[in-house]
Amino acid sequence: MRHLLSVTDLDAASATALLDTADRLKQALLGREVRKLPTLRGRTVVTMFYENSTRTRVSFEIAGKWMSADTINVAASGSSVGKGESLRDTAATLAAIGADCIVVRHPASGAAHRMAHWADRDAAAGAVGPTGPGSATSVVNAGDGTHEHPTQALLDAATVRDRLGGVAGRRIGIVGDVLHSRVARSNVFLLATLGAEVVLVAPPTLLPVGVAAWPCRVGTDLEAELPGLDVVMMLRVQAERMHGAFFPSSREYAVRYGLSERRAAFLPEHAVVLHPGPMVRGMEIAPAVADAPSSAVLAQVQNGVHVRMAVLYHLLAGAAA
User: Fold this and answer.
1) Is 152 annotated as a binding residue?
2) 12-29 and 150-164 are packed helices; what angle lies between their axes, rounded to 10 degrees?
3) Annotation-wise, does 107 bind a ligand?
4) Phi–psi pair at 102, nearest 5 degrees
5) Which residues form the Aspartate/ornithine carbamoyltransferase Asp/Orn-binding domain (predicted)?
6) How confident is the model over 144-184, as pLDDT tens digits?
7) Would the annotation count 83 as a binding residue?
8) pTM for this one?
9) 300 marked among binding-site residues
C-alpha cells in the first residue's frame, strides 16, 4: 500500500488487515510504562492541515510518536501557503525535505489524490524524495472537502468491532448532514464493504445528489429506523460549509433529527451511539445520550490513535516487515 486516499482503495481483506493490525498494536502497548514501539524509527511523518482539526491531527501525531517516528506539524497559516505557495510546490518541498509520509487535510475535494499523483510522478521521474532521488512519499487523506475521510471510517469500524464483536450483519444508521459529510461517505462505503447494512437518515435537503447509487438505504423518519439499529452514528451539522438555508432552524433540526433521551429509548439495549465530533450538544445529540454507557464517542477517539498507527505501519513498514 503506497497511499491511503479513499476507502474504495480497500477491499474487505485489506480493511480487515488494517483493523487487525490496530488491535495488535493496541495490545502491544498495554502495560507499557513508556508507550513507545521502535517500528518506525528513522521515519518522518508530516501533518499538513489546511482546515481546523483536533482529533485527527493530534491522533496522527501521537500515532507516529508512539511508533518512534519523527512527527512534524505544519500549519498552513504559518507556512509558505500564506505567501501564495501552491499545493504542488508544498508537496514537492515536503518530499525533498525528507517527509516519508504526508498526512493532509484540505478543503478541496481531491486534494490528497493530486498530492499522491505528484509524489508518484516525481518518484518515477527520479526527483529527490525522502531517501534520495526516485524515492516516493506516501500520502494519507485526512479529509478532503466533502469527499472522504478514510481513517475516520476505519476507526468507526474498529469501535463497532470492539463493542459488538464484528461489523458484518449489523444494521448501522448514519444520521444528519450527509450532504457536507466526508465521514458519512467514507463510512457508507467501508461499512458496506465489511458486510454491514447501512441506512442514511437525513432531511431531503441534506442528502447529496447521486446518493441512490451508494450501497445503502435512505430514510427520513429517524424514530421509525431506531428500533432496528445496532449502531446509530450522529453527524455534525457543518454550518461552515452551508451557503443557504438547509433547514428552518437549529431547534427544528433538533426536534426532527436530534438524538434526544426519548428517541434513544427506541434503540435496542445493545445498540451503540457514535459521533465523529466535535458534537453540538443539544442539537445533534442530547448531553445525557452523549455521556451514557451506550455512547462510544471517547472510544472512537482512543481507537483513532491505534488505527492511525496501523495505517502508518502498513504504509511505511509493512513492505519491509
Assistant:
1) yes
2) 70
3) no
4) -115, 120
5) 169-315
6) 999 999 999 999 999 999 999 999 999 999 999 999 899 99
7) yes
8) 0.93
9) no
